[in-house]
Structure formats: C-alpha cells, structure tokens
Automatic annotation (TrEMBL):
Name assigned to this protein: ABC transporter domain-containing protein
Biological source species: Kurthia sibirica
Family in the record: Belongs to the ABC transporter superfamily.
Alphabetized UniProt keyword annotations: ATP-binding, Cell membrane, Membrane, Nucleotide-binding, Transport
Predominant localisation class: membrane
Pfam families for this protein: ABC_tran
Length: 222
C-alpha cells in the first residue's frame, strides 16, 4: 500500500506584490504530530496557515494533503478534515455557546443527535457544560477560546490549525488554553499546527516541533 505524508509543502513560493513571503520552501507534517510556527511579526506565519486552509493560493509549488494536491479537494471536504481556531475567537454574538458549536456541524451536514452528543462531551471535557445557554459576551476570553476549540474539533478533524490562539488572553488563561490544546491533541490523536510568537508558550512545550519563518525561508529547528 502506498504511504504518504499527511501534509507536505513542495517547493512552495508565495509572494504578496513585490514581497517574497515564502521562496521554494519544503516541509512535512506527520499525522499525529504537534507543531509550533514561530517568527517575527509579518514574517509569514498566518500566511502558512492560510495556504493550508486554502484561503489563499501559492504562486508556485504544491501542497499535498494525504498525498493529493490540496487544490484538488473540494472545499467542503477539507472543512471536515481541517479545523481552525483564531486569536479573536470568531464566535457569533447573538448565538448561545451550544448554538455556536452546533452551527459548524450543521453546516457540514451531520446528524443533529450525534453532533449534540459530541458537543456535550467536549463541553464537559473543557469545563463548560454549565455554560451551554450563555452568550459569548457572558464568557471570559479563555472560555470563549475553549468554545471556539470545541467548535473547531466537533467534526473530529484530522488537523487543527490555530493562529495565535492565546494572543488575546492573559498569562493564566493562555497557559490553560495551550495545555488544553496539547491534551486534546493527545486524547484525539489530532495533528496540530499552532502559530505563536509567545516565548512563554514555547517554553511550556519543549517537546513540540518548532518551525520558523524568516525572510522567505521556512525551516524546522533541529
Ligand atoms: N492579502 C495580503 N495582501 C498583501 N500583503 C499581505 C496580505 N496578507 C499578508 N500580507 C503581508 O505578508 C506578510 C506576512 O503576513 P502574515 O500575516 O503571514 O505575517 P505573520 O507572521 O502572521 O505576522 P503577525 O505575527 O504580525 O500576525 C506581511 O508583511 C503582510 O503585510
């Protein structure tokens, strides 16, 4: 049987106008692994997540997902397989915690009862089962991010992308959210790629793989 890497960048070049963000970079992300993407502000960290999530396209090269060019997948299929968490939580303010979470599942056409069960299990797991009827504005930042994480993993994606998930949180909430992400990665065998520029976060997880984006290059720290 053919073997393939879960996610692979092959000779990817990405420019914005005259700025070269990535120049012929290669990278491999294995199934079940946990990665940080680091680098200075403006270096291209979010750009890498946006390329994986097909929000933007590369000028040159291929991104392979499960051995096939990412661009050959239908978007809705990728949405089931790749979850995303943002710095700004991106919750819908007029919807309750549970409605926010179920909306993502419904959009992907899954059975409501199964989704509800999974949502309740995850909300209990992240300590928010008492908040299902609350609205986002009634939650702390750390709680909002936990809701966003539950929403992103409701459909058991193979890969979770997180763009500065602790960027809007105080030190304690940031540490709790990062611990939660790492634990969920272990419990759900979910591959994760987390963008951060926080030295504190990096110091907390020395076991994770680190990638740096710098002046068009994208490389793994040995
Ligand atoms: N749609 C776009 N059009 C033009 N330039 C862009 C676009 N998106 C990003 N850029 C530029 O590309 C560079 C990399 O942006 P990116 O958001 O990936 O950086 P980053 O490393 O995530 O930064 P930060 O840590 O500040 O969030 C920046 O100089 C940015 O201004």
């Amino acid at each position: 049987m053919a073997t393939f890497n879960m996610l692979e960048f092959r000779n990817i070049t990405k420019n914005f106008g005259e700025s070269v963000i990535l120049h012929e970079v290669n990278a491999i992300f294995h199934k079940g692994s946990f990665h940080f993407i680091c680098g200075e502000s403006g270096s291209g960290k979010s750009t890498i997540l946006k390329l994986i999530n097909q929000e933007i396209a590369a000028e040159k090269g291929d991104i392979l997902w499960q051995g096939q060019p990412l661009k050959s997948y239908e978007k809705f299929k990728l949405r089931r397989q790749i979850g995303v968490v943002f710095q700004s939580f991106e919750l819908i303010h007029h919807m309750t915690v549970l409605e926010n979470i179920l909306l993502a599942g419904r959009a992907l056409g899954k059975n409501r009862q199964a989704l509800l069960q999974r949502a309740m299990k995850l909300l209990t797991r992240v300590g928010l089962n008492g908040k299902i009827e609350a609205y986002p504005e009634q939650l702390s930042g750390g709680q909002m991010q936990r809701v966003a994480i539950v929403r992103a993993i409701l459909n058991k994606p193979l890969l979770l992308l997180a763009d500065e998930p602790t960027g809007n949180l105080d030190r304690k909430a940031a540490s709790d959210v990062m611990n939660l992400l790492y634990e969920l990665h272990r419990e759900e065998q979910m591959t994760m790629i987390v963008v951060t520029h926080s030295e504190e976060v990096l110091a907390q997880f020395t076991q994770a793989q680190r990638w740096y984006v710098k002046e068009g290059d994208f490389y793994e720290q040995e």
